[in-house]
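> example.struct
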């Protein structure tokens, strides 16, 4: 049974910057986890991915591209040992997209309420989590979300994007 996830990839150069930071602080999951905003957490699925891909394709067509602004840090402690980069813009669009993809063959109950974020430290001690919280407090970037990805966990290789789902384009007025 494959283990999948659905996520919005953080684009370059920030993806590598954040992943390199995770590695430098000693996060044991850093090498196999691309920088991302989770829409569907890791999930074991049975059978073919064709139904899941069709569902994700339809969901993508129903959502327009949108802007994300990442700024500053947050944490889920004491509930979970995670430090993350917060979204200052794009929260509601991520929530709506996540709600949409968590239907059909991906209908699932979440262990925690959905909170869009980019993890930068996980499975570390308090000292390293505090360090990440402080050192990345001034992190900031903005980008357009034009697609999301289906990821499949590939053992030691970690999470690999297996398919990209483009969002609907924003209509432009060519008469201006």
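> example.seq
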């Amino acid at each position: 049974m494959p283990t999948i996830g659905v996520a919005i990839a953080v684009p370059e150069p920030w993806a590598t910057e954040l992943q390199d930071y995770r590695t430098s602080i000693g996060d044991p999951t850093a090498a196999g986890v691309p920088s991302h905003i989770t829409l569907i957490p890791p999930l074991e699925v049975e059978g073919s991915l064709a139904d899941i891909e069709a569902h994700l394709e339809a969901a993508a067509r129903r959502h327009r591209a949108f802007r994300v602004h990442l700024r500053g840090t947050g944490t889920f402690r004491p509930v979970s040992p995670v430090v993350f980069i917060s979204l200052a813009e794009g929260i509601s669009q991520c929530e709506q997209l996540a709600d949409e993809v968590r239907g059909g063959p991906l209908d699932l109950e979440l262990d925690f309420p959905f909170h869009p974020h980019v993890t930068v430290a996980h499975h570390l001690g308090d000292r390293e989590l505090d360090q990440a919280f402080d050192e990345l407090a001034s992190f900031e970037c903005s980008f357009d979300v034009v697609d999301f990805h289906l990821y499949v966990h590939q053992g030691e290789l970690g999470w690999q994007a297996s398919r990209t789902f483009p969002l609907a384009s924003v209509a432009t007025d060519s008469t201006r």
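> remarks
The first strand starts at residue 3 and ends at 9.
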